[in-house]
Amino acid sequence: MSAASLRRAARESVSGLPRAFWWLWTSTLVNRLGAFVATFMTLYLTLDRGYSASFAGLVVALHGLGGVISSLVAGVMTDRLGRRPTLLAAQASTAFSVALLGFMEHPAAIAAVALLVGMTSNASRPAVAAMMADIVRPEDRVRAFALNYWAINLGFAVSATAAGLIAEYSYLAGFLGEAALTLACAVLVYVKLPESRPERGGVGGSDASGASGASGAASGKSGPEPEIGLGSVLRDGRFMGVVGLSFLISLIFTQGSVGLPVAMGSAGFSPGDYGLVIAVNGFLIVALQIPVTRLIEHRDPQKLLVVSALLAGYGFALTAFAGPVWAYALTVCVWTLAEIVNSPTQMGLVVRLSPVHGRGRYQGVYTMSWAVAALVAPLMAGFMIDRWGADWLWATTGVLGTVAAVGYWLLMRGLSEGVGETAPAAAGGGEPKAAPAEPLPAGPAPVEPLPTSGPVGAS
Description:
This protein has helices spanning about 5-15, 20-35, 35-50, 55-80, 85-100, 105-120, 125-135, 140-165, 170-190, 215-220, 230-235, 235-255, 260-265, 270-295, 300-315, 325-355, 360-385, 390-410; strands at about 420-425, 435. It is mostly helical. A two-stranded antiparallel sheet has the order 1-2. Helix 4 packs antiparallel against helix 17 (about 360-385).
C-alpha cells in the first residue's frame, strides 16, 4: 500500500466524528498515559513488598471488588446526575486515592485503599461509554469505540514501558504520576466537555445523534419513555448473556496484568522485562487497531466474536510454553489480536442493546462484568500459581476461551435480524415493551467523507 493510500485510510478512519468526541478521546489518552496501579500492583506487592502471590491476588481482588460496587452506582449516577459530573467526581477521587495508596505501609491499609482505588477508578467507565454513545451517530459508533480503544492502548504502551523503568527505582513515583495525570484528565473534562445526557421528550425522546430509543415511538403512542431501573436491565436476557460472555473474556484478558507478571516474576524476570513484554500489547493495538477495524468491515460479528474468544484463550495458553522474553512477547501478540477484534465489536453490540435513557445503567452492568473479572481473576491466578504452578492457569484460559466461543455462537444465532427488541418495563412494573432496534451491523460502520480539519478540531 502506498504512502498516499495509508494517509487516505487514516483520514477516513477519523473523519466525521464530532468535536466533543475528540476531547473525550484526548481525556482517555491522558488518563491511560498515567496507568500504573492496575499494571504493576502485583509486582509492587510481591517484589517490592515481599508478599506472597496469594496476598497480592487478594489485594488486587479487593481492587476489583471496588469496581463491582462502583459500576452499578456510577451507572445510576450517569443516568440521574449526568455524564459530566460523574466523570469529574470519579477522576478527582481517583487521583486522591491513587496518591494515598503509594504512602500506605500496613497490609490492612494497603488492602483498604486498594478497594477505594478500585471504586473510584472504575466509576468513570459507564459515563465515558454513555457519553460516547450520546455524541456519536449510530453508524459511526463501532468506529468511535475502536478509536477510543486505540487511545487507551496508545497511552498504555507508553506508560507500561516508562512505568516499568520507574518501578525499578521508585514505585511511589509511579503512584504519584498516575494521580497527577488523572487529575489533569478531570480538569480537561471540566473545561472542554459539555453535558451530553439526552433530555426526555414527549414521544420517547432521542439521543444526540437523533436515534430514537423509545418504545412509544414504535407503537405510535405518545408519552414519556418508561423509567429504566437496574431490575429492568437484569431482566433483559439477551443483554445479560452478553454480560456473561464478557465476564469470561475479561477473566482471560485480566491475566495479562495479574497472572503474567506473577509468573514472570517467579521465573526470575524483572519489572522492566514485564513492562517491555506487556508494552507489546499496547504498541500492537496502536499499530493494528485502525487497519484491522477497516479490514473486518461488514464481517459477521458472530464469527468475529467466536474467533476472538478462541484467540484470547489459546493465546494465553501458549504462555505455558514460553521461556525467553521474546517468547512471552510472541504470546502477547496472539491474544492482542483477539483484543483488537473483540473490543469494538462487543462494545458496538452493547450500545445497540441499550435504550437511550438507560445507557448509564446498561453500561454500568456491562462494566460490572469486567469489574467482577478483576475480582475473580487475581484470586484464581494467585491460588493456581501457589498450589499447582502457572501452567495450570494458562491451561484454564484455553478452556475459558473455548466456552466463550461456544457461548457467542449460540447467543448470536439470528441476532443480526434485530437487536434490542425489548425495552425495560415501566416504573410501575410489568413486562418489557417492544422497542425499535437499530439493525446490528455486520462489522464496523463505513467511514464518512473527509473532514476539513484535524481530529481534535473536527466538527
